């Protein structure tokens, strides 16, 4: 079977066509035929009368708010969140298969939450789950009432398993090792850099403030826990996390910091799993009808292999969660621009939500989304103009709101950051070269240059071109490739992996005889070879070494430095008094920086800890500690926790010589728990 890209007639104008496959092609405004197990279409249901629709809508509105209040009273708001996701999937009745509806529901809700966060920040209920869930269900019920269609979901198909199995396996490989670990070990699995702790402080403070922090940048709620430059950071991912946390905990009160941080790391894993789901779904959608187990799962395996063993895995663990979420939206835009939905109205709404998600989460990716969107708009301009009211409304809202995060953040983060050096694992250029070669091979074997293929090629070329331009600017200004070049390389590899879905028709044309085991062996060998090439550390830059820890070495077997730092921070947090003293932690394990960062998050209610971390980032000598403590403000008191005998001796002598400092000195080796805590949440 050929792919959909080979079925379009070259004489027809794509802007006048329905991009759906012929078997499901329907006119806009009519419900699609949903296949039964045998593939037969269901008979269309007659629309209810106006009076009956009004009655059902009123009953639905009452039921929505009753469900929201009742579930909150039972502390089961997470069920309300599930209901909202399912109801949104029902409204998106032209999205295709059940997996299509699920992905579109999740992305549309996430992007809409970023936009609605502006309203949530100023209305009196802020992020309360009853207000949010009731409002979301109200919108869904009103849409049902206006359209007059009976709610329904398609039955699961075998094609859904092509996405569900690899995406579910990928999520399980991330989630199960985390869930079975004790609490300090959980922290050690993901504690690699500073960014993750700062993102937690932003999300946690947004729960306290009830919305975006740039609405109250100098309030007591935010100033105690969040650095000034982080108050204006694009916080779309943090808004989604704060809303999710309120639904799961059935409260707007942050509560215990240890439990809150554990949940936050769970949301971080969920974000990375969502990237895997959208990438696999996108590759499957680009593959079209030619996708089968033997032809598509090698592509899905390549995606999962890179996400688990490639450089992005370490980048994610270093705290690049906003970029991970931003790339999820970018992949979604790229795929829908190439293979639009049958319903133009739903296509416009979904793309607008994704664009707003990029703007509020990682606005550096907005230019990368512009080219596929413009190409889609030109290719399907006639269909879009037939729905000009929806197009105009979505366009005005998107254009008016999308610049807000950058406008709020401009004074704290200038464009000069693009050429500055920061700590990051170098991304081997060979990874992108292998994937781009695979995509070029698919282009060469394509039977004709279809609109879908043009759109995907334009998306990949845009990302590659933007990355090359940034590299040229960095080489010209600072003489070397810097931080944001490697971050852009993540985008190159991710888009190339999704575009590899276009190679599925090529695999489907392989002629290996009637023996299915031979075909499986050849495809499996090719898949393993591609994964090895992408994850094996190919590097073409001279003098650049890469160190990729991957899923097995540090995530499954435990990251030694992270575990030591996490256990130390957990023990200090739990077994030292939770008073107003600023903590200084010095250990011979050389993980002071990670330990202090984690302590800043766990002891978020002690304002002095964060400021202590700012000036105490690296190890100091005993005399330097003395100088810092003595020279500090008179109203600040300190507690020094260390296992270094020289530091202990000097701090104890200082405490005896200067009782006015009220210095508390603690030998870390005397704290309960030892090096391995078994406390579970």
Rg of Cα set = 27 Å
Helix and strand content put the structural class at mainly alpha
Helix content: 55-70%
Strand order of the largest sheet: 1-2-3
Approximately what portion of the residues adopt beta-strand conformation?
under 5%
Mean pLDDT equals: 78
Q: Report, as a whole number of angstroms, the end-to-end distance.
A: 52 Å
Shape: globular
Largest beta-sheet characterization: 3 strands, parallel
Question: How many H/I helical runs?
Answer: 30
Low-confidence sequence ranges: 1-42, 511-515, 535-548, 610-617, 675-681
Number of strands: 3
Keywords: Membrane, Transmembrane, Transmembrane helix
InterPro entries: TAT_signal
List the topology elements.
Layout: H1 50-73, H2 77-91, H3 98-120, H4 129-147, H5 158-179, H6 183-190, H7 195-209, H8 220-223, H9 228-231, H10 236-249, H11 257-287, H12 293-309, H13 311-317, H14 321-338, H15 344-361, H16 366-379, H17 381-385, H18 388-401, H19 404-409, H20 429-445, H21 451-477, H22 483-499, H23 504-508, H24 516-535, H25 550-556, H26 560-575, E1 582-586, H27 592-602, H28 607-615, H29 622-631, E2 638-642, H30 645-657, E3 664-667
